[in-house]
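The protein record filed here:
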Amino acid sequence: MVQKSNKEQKRILITRFSAVGDIAMTIPLLYSLCRQYPQHRFFFVSRERFGQFFINHPENLEFIGVKPENYGGLWGLYKLYKKLRAYKPDIIADLHDVLRTKILRTYFKLLSGANCFHIIKGRKEKKALTRQNNKCRTALTSTFERYRDVFTRAGMPFTPDFVSLFGCDAGDITEFASFVPAKGNDKWVGIAPFARHDGKIYPIEKMEETVSILSEQKNIRLFFFGNGPKEEAVINGWCSKYPNCISFINRSNFNGELRLISHLDAMVCMDSANMHMASLVNTPAISIWGATSPLAGFLGWRQKEEDCIQLPLECRPCSIFGNKPCLYGDCRCMNIPPSHVAERIIKRIAL
């Protein structure tokens, strides 16, 4: 296939179907890329619900929401290919590189002649970082750079310059006025105490102690984020027990959460999607790391490593995703005193 000049319009189809944090991590790169190549058209394909992240997106970026469960197997993915080929892409940028996207890009390459490029995940380096013995503790290439590399190889080098989904402002939260008071001189701190895998979660009893300390501080108001009935029960218990606490569970969707997070002075979270959501709205994330490590390349966009709370243990990191059982059975990597966590938070929001 003849390669077009960068001055000619190209149509780029980008795929990434999961997960929440990984989708959020694409946005700083996509927005920067699209604005630096206004002559091209970009189409981002993902699960329907992730469209809520694409606030104030560039005019030449279109989100295509699909339900992957409706396109199972080779035949199902062929049907998805037929649906997406209507966008007439010249280039396929696979930011996921799983079986589903490998098959999909193969259809485009063989049947449409599209040029295909995919993320290089660095699986060997990640195994070396997390193996039990002789860990290679070198910081790995960040996921942002891995995403960026896909487009560079596709002939679209660019300089990431993303700041926030809301530019220099914060999102509109007037619809939450019935339960979110005026900020005034208060410091607003978000707390997202959960994560998908246990290896990433600061023990709930320790987090409650942290909440107790923070709730007694002058001019600090706490906002809690979570999902599902179990998490809601825990957070509602805290809100009924400690002052200056507000639950944001079931109050809105991703879009609303991002708007509220943009008003926070800090977001306290795990190595989780909430860290990346805070990153999208230029809010500092004070992140607690256990089984995983920032060395693996998943620290949030423009977040600082000094805002990562972690212990210098030889066994860390033992997992990329936090989904492996603890080697010792006691999750000692999360044996961080609540007073230390609270102190770090108080110091950070006073800056």
Notes: Residues 1-5 have pLDDT under 50 and may be disordered. The first helix runs from residue 20 to 36. The first strand starts at residue 11 and ends at 15. The domain at 174-349 is CATH 3.40.50.2000 (Rossmann fold).
